Amino acid sequence: MYDIIIVGAGPAGLTAALYARRANKKVLVLEAKTYGGQIINTPEIENYPGIPKISGYDYATNLYNQALELGAEIKFETVIRVEKDKTVETNKDHYKAKAVILAIGADKRKLNLPKEVDLIGKGVSYCATCDGNFFKNKIVAVNGGGNTALEEAIYLSNIAKKVYLIHRRDTFRGEKKYVDEVLKKENIERIMNSTITKINGEKHLESIEIVNQEGKTNTIEINGLFIAIGQAPKNEIFKNIIELTQDGYIKSEDGVHTNIKGIYVAGDSREKELRQLTTAVSDGAIAATTAIKEMED
Fold it and tell me: Can you state the angle between helices 176-184 and 147-157, rounded to 10 degrees?
């Protein structure tokens, strides 16, 4: 029997483990693959308060080791099911806890093009607020047509020399206020009814190829490509008991409680406006302290 079982060893899950162990709770963290979540693939973090610059790998490793040193038990097992009674089933065993924190995270949706993954951190990015500062006075492109893509294009327009905003439809899906802001920006060039079909570059991104609805191909030389076509939450395994949004995120009116008493949520897997490292660790701290308080009441 554990006090708290945490599903996911990303920044939210590991932060929850830190806070739970500092409260002297018996903690188990379960992770299917490797610790760190999405941040482990970020070449440099420059927007975390108090740390001017650190690689995502180093940050994640420091956090992982900190959790271990405080006495958190971390097992690399795939969670198959979570029950209302706080029983967690993995591919290897069953575990029971007084409280469960779901911090399984989400994956950025990819274009699934050759060289896309190879050039992550070398021109290809999925987060303008994370990596935009590396492209001061350079030429970048944003792919997408929803709020995230529009916001990223606006954000980058204040940093980059020029921003291409590429969308596969003839109208944007985002809110009017963001569309209007994009239209005001002189350095944002909108390319509609077009799809990115090729990413070019060896050691770093050099250009992309796009095809419009008429089948015409065009090559655009750019320094950075920001892919903003959404995220894919990994909450399918919880749908037997946990209420999810239409997009698959965990519903939580206050950002920490799920619809099941004693089961909490933290990080990118929950419905929220901003998915950043700072908000993930904040979620983890809040989830752990809330679980501990309610466990002791």
Answer: 30
Q: Which of 3, 93, 107, 131 is catalytic?
A: 131
Residues 249-253 have a mean pLDDT of: 94
User: What digits encode the pLDDT tens for the residues 14-73?
Assistant: 999 999 999 999 999 999 989 999 888 676 788 899 999 998 899 999 999 999 999 999
Domain 2-108+231-296 and domain 124-227 have a common topology:
yes
Instruction: Give the active site residue among 3, 130, 268, 283.
Output: 130
Q: Is 127 a catalytic residue?
A: yes
pTM for the model stands at 0.73
Q: Which residues touch 117 (CB under 8 Å, ≥6 apart)?
A: 110
Residue 247 catalytic?
Answer: no
- Listed by start position, the domains of the chain span 2-108+231-296, 124-227
Q: What is the pLDDT of residues 77-88, one digit of tens each?
A: 999 999 999 999
CATH of 2-108+231-296, one of 3.40.50.700, 3.30.43.10, 3.40.50.620, 3.50.50.60: 3.50.50.60
Classify 124-227 by CATH class.
alpha beta
85 is catalytic: no
Among candidate residues 3, 127, 268, 283, the one labeled active-site is: 127
